[in-house]
Amino acid sequence: MISVAEALAHLFDLAQPLETEVVPLKHANGRVLVENAIARRDQPPFSASAMDGYAVRNADVTTGATFTMIGESAAGHRFDGAINAGECVRIFTGAPLPKGADRIIIQEDVTADGDKITLGDNLDSNPYVRAKGFDFKDGDVIPASKTLGPSDIALLAAMNISDVTVTRRPKVAILSTGDELVMPGEEPTEDQIIASNSFGLYAMLKDIGAEPRLLPIARDNEASLKTAFSLAEDADLLVTIGGASVGDHDLVGDVAADLGMERSFYKITMRPGKPLMAGRLSNGAMMIGLPGNPVSAMVCGKIFLEPVIRAMLGLGKAPAREFTAPLAHDVKANGPREHYTRARQENGSVSIFERQDSALLSVLAAADTLVIRPPNDPARKAGEIMRCVAI
Ligand code: AMP
Ligand code: MG
Predict the structure, then answer these.
(1) How would DSSP label each residue in 302-318?
(2) Ligand 1 pocket, residue 242 CB under 6 Å
(3) Which of 197, 201, 255, 274 to mutate to test the pocket of ligand 1 (most atoms within 8 A of CB)?
């Protein structure tokens, strides 16, 4: 048996960044930028007004001063002339600042009468001018290896970048195994249960930018498993669930080996998650065999699958992000395996749930945190600082 960290290192050896593709901006949300994006213009491309008001020369501004209005500058329609002493131009937000002007008097500070305006006696001192390139300049860079979100998309659009180079989404085939499983919505017989963690993993993978696919449930026999494996041939990663212990019906490892899987490791000192398995299939794709218990599969998804997908996406090879939080209560000593306990944050500290059975999806769903207990961690007192992962 190897440790969680060793297992992750093996997984990172197997997981390589995928190739890239160019996508239109509309489809770039959630994708990983792999080439620097370079601004193609200044923003704003001209000095612009930040308010509705009157463009003037700052040198002319005193309380009660009057100006003659010589024209208008609106967004998309600049005033072509220049402003001289005692002149102003009616201006609107986003409009180019006329030549000679260097200040906007907001309309609230002005009394207008025909083509004359008179300034009030309590002027807002902000010039309300956005200088050319105030937001970004031609040639400014959005650096690669970033997952694009809505704000990035808006910035890229403003930079006049219509297509971006991103990592291809990893194709992940998810295979539930077990004679007892039916799909949600089906009518289970007395001895059957509903396949659940496959749906949780599907959601998890989708959330982090993979392209998951649920294969039909494989039954606990070689023929069914082999058929299911053959349906995953186009995947970058095959994730099997269950059938990985040493029971008579646990055939996943044997079938994978028969099909030429080169095993990297099997079994880790983790709780939940002991029967984790990984390797490379004969077609070069990765395989990860997750334990069947619903919580084990989901926790292993968080701790192993997500980092693997991030590595494939070109986001680097790093474990799940940790933070620390104080314990809300005392805990007993931990056993010999690294324990990822389901917990909840409340008022700045974490409470570990009493019930930690790896079949309890209701507890997992109530949890927002995994508190990590190292192997043989001694008893801990309330207030001690613990390593945590958000789930
Ligand atoms: P196994 O590793 O196949 O012995 O599975 C361990 C436990 O997890 C058993 O109670 C299975 O019924 C359950 N299990 C396996 N796969 C799934 C799944 N996809 N959804 C929900 N439970 C599962
Ligand atoms: Mg099974």
Answers:
(1) IIIIHHHHHHHTTS-S-
(2) yes
(3) 197
**Model pTM above 0.90:** yes
Cα-to-centroid distance, 293 and ligand 1 (Å): 5
Residue 196 Cβ inside 6 Å of ligand 1? The answer reads yes
Alpha-carbon separation of residue 48 from 76, 117, 344, 390 (angstroms):
11, 21, 50, 44
- Ligand found nearest the CA of 289: 1
From 2, 31, 1, 6, select the one nearest 319 (Cα to Cα): 6
Regarding the beta carbon of 293 and ligand 1, being less than 6 Å apart is answered yes
- Give me the tens of pLDDT residue by residue for the chain, a chain 391 residues long: 999 999 999 999 999 999 999 999 999 999 999 999 999 999 999 999 999 999 999 999 999 999 999 999 999 999 999 999 999 999 999 999 999 999 999 999 999 999 999 999 999 999 999 999 999 999 999 999 999 999 999 999 999 999 999 999 999 999 999 999 999 999 999 999 999 999 999 999 999 999 999 999 999 999 999 999 999 999 999 999 999 888 888 899 999 999 999 999 999 999 999 999 999 999 999 999 999 999 999 999 999 999 999 999 999 999 999 999 999 999 999 999 999 999 999 999 999 999 999 999 999 999 999 999 999 999 999 999 999 999 9
Ligand 1 and 253: CB distance under 6 A: no
369: β partners: 343, 390
